[in-house]
């Protein structure tokens, strides 16, 4: 009975572990949306061990978003390449330069995918004609104009510098939907093999990940071993009880015979 109880409890534990790990399978926020797998995880829909800290994604209206603490708003994830460890993002407000101005990637596991170059943002009271100054319409207004310029150029009197940042301005491609996007990349030591084989993986410790298929095979092996041990234990217990019963029967028979013998040889008074 104890062996059966152990087997049931052990089986339940394995099923719970496998069910928990199975939540780390690949997901999508909608049809045509990027495939989400380790090191990314869907916040609120998957367990924390399914992804690495800092790689949380959010599903809203069948669209994939990635939040950044330093930026006021989530960015749309257009695509994810696990081979090149890169992702293409879009600003829902269609103003990627606002992202460049406010996004601080030093607090994240990401960095810009394309080559960076320093640019200075200018706030000008009048429109500039020179081709050396690129106006940013989404940041400009009716009474002021925002431009980007290389820091080495002299500033016009009607302009004041706002901020100089390193951005992939010349290298960010125009995506298929004609939105000016930006690409990010990541480096995560210890996850190369897990990501390369395309398996369903998750966070095991600070430097590695578990492989769901491998863990299931390992769990099945332990389960079979436990069943064999339990079966052998039950057989031994049954055999031991059977021998004990046979010994008791033999003892009872001997006692009974001795009783009969005593009655025969007992002298009459």
UniProtKB/TrEMBL annotation:
It is found in: Membrane. Keywords: Membrane, Metal-binding, Signal, Transferase, Transmembrane, Transmembrane helix, Ubl conjugation pathway, Zinc, Zinc-finger. Its EC number is 2.3.2.27. Residues 1-19 form the signal peptide. It is an enzyme of class 2 (transferase). Pathway: Protein modification; protein ubiquitination. Its main location: membrane. It holds the Pfam family GUB_WAK_bind. It comes from the Eukaryota. Belongs to the RING-type zinc finger family. ATL subfamily. This is RING-type E3 ubiquitin transferase.
């Amino acid at each position: 009975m104890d062996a059966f109880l152990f087997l049931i409890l052990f089986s339940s534990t394995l099923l719970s572990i496998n069910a928990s790990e199975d939540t780390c399978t690949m997901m999508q926020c909608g049809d045509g949306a990027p495939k989400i797998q380790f090191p990314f995880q869907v916040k609120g829909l998957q367990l924390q061990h399914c992804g690495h800290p800092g790689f949380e994604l959010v599903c809203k209206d069948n669209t994939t978003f990635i939040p950044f603490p330093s930026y006021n708003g989530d960015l749309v994830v257009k695509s994810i390449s696990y081979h090149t460890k890169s992702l293409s993002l879009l600003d829902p407000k269609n103003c990627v330069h606002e992202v460049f101005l406010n996004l601080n990637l030093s607090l994240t596991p990401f960095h810009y995918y394309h080559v960076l170059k320093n640019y200075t943002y200018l706030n000008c009271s009048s429109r500039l004609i020179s081709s050396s100054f690129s106006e940013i319409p989404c940041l400009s207004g009716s009474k002021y104009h925002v431009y980007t310029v290389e820091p080495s150029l002299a500033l016009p009197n009607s302009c004041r510098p706002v901020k100089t940042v390193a951005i992939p301005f010349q290298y960010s491609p125009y995506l298929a939907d004609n939105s000016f996007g930006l690409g990010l990349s990541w480096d995560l030591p210890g996850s190369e093999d897990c990501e390369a084989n395309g398996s369903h993986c998750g966070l095991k410790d600070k430097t590695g990940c578990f492989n769901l298929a491998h863990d299931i095979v390992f769990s099945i092996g332990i389960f079979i071993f436990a069943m064999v041990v339990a079966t052998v234990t039950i057989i031994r217990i049954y055999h031991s009880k059977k021998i004990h019963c046979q010994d008791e029967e033999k003892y009872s028979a001997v006692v009974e015979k001795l009783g009969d013998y005593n009655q025969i040889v007992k002298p009459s008074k």
